[in-house]
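Good morning N.,

You mentioned wanting to compare the apo and holo forms, so I went ahead and generated the holo version with magnesium ion. This is what I fed in:
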Amino acid sequence: MCVDRIKDKENYFKGCLIGGAIGDALGYAVEFYSYDRITDKYGPQGIRKFDLSRSEKALISDDTQMTLFTANGILAGETYSALTGVEIAPREFVYKAYLDWLTTQGYPAHKTDKRISWLMGIPQLLTRRAPGNTCISSLLSGEKRSLSKPINTSKGCGAVMRIAPFGLFYGGKDDDGFLTEAMEIGALTHSHPLSHYACALVSDIIGRIIYGKSNNENYDTLIGVIEDAVKNVCHKVRLPYGEQFEKSVYKAINLSKNDRSDVENVTELGEGWVAEETVAIAIYCAIKYQNDPIEGMIAAVNHGGDSDSTGAVAGNILGAWNGYAAFPKEFVNNLEISNVIEETAVDLVRGTDLFKDFKVLTADWLKKYDLCR
Ligand SMILES: [Mg+2]
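and this is what came out, ligand included:
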């Protein structure tokens, strides 16, 4: 019987964001390591728990930072709409939130627009954690980019690694507008169709996990959810490179059924620096370890590629599937700013009720999400 996650949204929203952050932090310690260097340092099984040697907490990287700013932008935009009655696309305020993130990285991002992100007041977020060059250069251009106004040909994973809150918040709507908006948010910084496909697919997977119908037998297993999402995205999104994307995802699904080692399988899927490989590695690990999120993230980070991003996306999917309660305390307690990540997830849950119940708009809420007017 498929779990009804809408009844316990807080558990699954928190699971998605905390899972992504645990995968990110686990992988950030080995982001630029070859596989041999990982096993030399951590033993033949690779890194299996947080490396706390550099600080008291496991450090999150730009993947989690930008994920939090995606959520902040979505909620600031929805609050603006609720207060003014003016409907705006999510990407508008997500863009402003990304400019705020850019400022946290030491760049004078925007002089005229007001800051909209309460997250800028969190000291631990005012740090550089190997931020992606594509995100920085696109945002520094000073012009909001979109699907129709590309800025580069990058298919780096910097867009898909931060998209999870969009799937959590807007998922469950089986319309083309949902997929297009996921791609528009990615297109703020990355212009290659393979990045667009990746953003659409991860949003759709997370949306289906949370809002998938409880009587859908197909959704008793994660592979059923993922196969439906792939079919949907590849059918509805009509961009170049669609076949290549589909092939890469099905390769991951097929590899998850064999009994070779994870290192062999993951290596066959690529290194995860580019979006279609990041998604393929995350999907392989999530399907293979659907009921053991930590083991899935361990598989997602122990390779010679972009370990924090593959860990983050695998963690988003596995966390949405299993819920927050499935994560061992030793991981949650040792994670940097886990309180801010959890608070953001709870706000996303409350925000989904904004238009049903204006009581969400308390003074505390407005202090966080009504900074732009
Ligand atoms: Mg990173």
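The first helix runs from residue 9 to 28.

Happy to go through it together on a call whenever suits you.

Best,
F.
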